[in-house]
Amino acid sequence: MSGGRRLAAAVAAAAMMLAGCGTSVTGHPLPEGAAAAEEGGSPQFDKLLRECDAVPNDKIAETLHGAGIDQYFFGAVCMWTVSSAAGSIDVTFGWFENNSLQRERSVADQLGYQVETTSIAGTSAFSARRPGDSATCGITAAYSGVITWWVQQRSGTGDPCDGARTLAELTLQRNQ
After folding, report:
1. pTM for the complete prediction?
2. 65 Cβ partners below 8 Å, 6+ apart?
3. Which of 7, 12, 34, 166 would be 30's cystine partner, CB 3.0–4.6 Å?
4. What stretch of H or E contains 90?
5. Is the dihedral of CA 19, 103, 3, 64 positive or negative?
6. Which among 174, 173, 120 has a CA at the least distance from the CA of 148?
């Protein structure tokens, strides 16, 4: 992802976050995890606004054989650049608690991505690649909604799906 695209994504996300600042919330507070238990739902991510910590930065860099890592965006979508001997690697993570695997797959199909059903740590998942872009791969898995890891190797070396798959596995292991 180019610097301009990153900046545009960051500005758009910040605008969406600011738009919600004037909203009133009705209801009553509940202890952590009580809403999911009351609704009979699946366990919720218990670190609201800490989704970017799903896998520690040093573990992301290690997984992608990186020498360094720079996290440049925090929010509903988390973004890093990993420095490696082969070049820069862009990494994006999103955890959408109110989404479904079927919806994400439908979107990937509509975008013309090459989609393949898979399983991550025993969980339903799929991989997605943009047509003609072998340097980029996303892995989406069902878990309290969906989690998605995208890896783009700017140098075009190696299989980005390997890194995305491992990051998804680490996320599921840490948070189950």
Report:
1. 0.71
2. 84, 85, 86
3. 34
4. strand 87-96
5. positive
6. 120
Q: How far apart are CA 60 and CA 66, in angstroms?
A: 8
Selection from 119, 126, 101, 97 nearest residue 35 by Cα: 97
Residue whose entry in the numeric block shows the structure tokens 């218990």: 46
What one-letter code names the amino acid at 174? R
**Whether the Cβ atoms of residue 163 and residue 64 lie closer than 8 Å to each other:** yes
145 has pLDDT over 60: yes
Angle at 128 between CA 142 and CA 170, to 5 degrees: 45
Cα distances (Å, whole numbers) of residue 165 to 42, 70, 141, 151, 159: 23, 20, 10, 10, 10
